[in-house]
Specification:
Blueprint (H helix, E strand, L loop, with lengths): L11 H4 L3 H14 L1 H15 L4 H13 L3 H6 L2 E3 L2 E3 L1 H25 L3 H21 L4 H4 L3 H17 L2 H14 L3
Antiparallel strand pairs: 1-2
């Protein structure tokens, strides 16, 4: 079997930096050079434009599926400050798993990246349906209405925040084409 040549990095010192150290170096570079700052901004925008709806859906479905019903039962029940029903705890845990995805969706809107936000929203909605249909999770017995109510809630939250009828129609078309309603 032939040996592969290792490629030697042209920036071995930079390659060895931690994330925080690399962030510091980048901040210094763009602070010192407005042209470089503009280039870095363009590269960042290009990276952020790469929203993979299928990837978001897989991530959402996986994050929701990873919640163990045993953990729901262990963290519900009588508390010092009252009683937490297992169904209530299941909703909380599912919402906690979904929150980072919703946060990313809304962050795209804050960045002015409406199309990317829509693609992210579409992935979240698709992921909720995949979790509902494919997971076989016992959580769905504790919170049987979670998927339908959360699907509608995420959609409505995004539609209200985006305020763009054309984007709303594109999301509606995606939902219809995928049979998610």
């Amino acid at each position: 079997m032939p040996r592969r040549k290792k490629t030697v990095s042209s920036t071995p010192l930079l390659d060895s930096l931690s994330v925080d150290q690399a962030r510091f170096v980048l901040a210094r570079l763009i602070g010192d050079d407005p042209a470089l700052a503009a280039r870095a901004e363009g590269i960042a925008r290009d990276v952020l434009r790469m929203v993979d709806t299928e990837g978001v859906a897989e991530s959402v479905a996986s994050d929701l599926s990873c919640i163990d019903i045993e953990e729901v039962w262990e963290t519900s029940g009588r508390r010092r400050d009252g009683y937490v029903y297992p169904s209530e705890r299941a909703w909380e845990m599912l919402d906690d798993a979904l929150e980072p995805h919703k946060g990313e969706m809304m962050l795209y809107l804050k960045r002015g990246m409406v199309e990317e936000s829509r693609l992210c929203c579409a992935g979240i909605l698709l992921g909720i349906r995949r979790f509902e249909q494919d997971s076989g999770s016992d959580l769905l017995e504790e919170a049987p209405d979670y998927c339908n109510e959360t699907f509608d809630s995420v959609r409505e939250e995004w539609e209200k925040a985006v305020g763009d009828a054309a984007q709303v129609r594109l999301l509606a078309r995606f939902i219809e084409e995928k049979g998610l309603s």
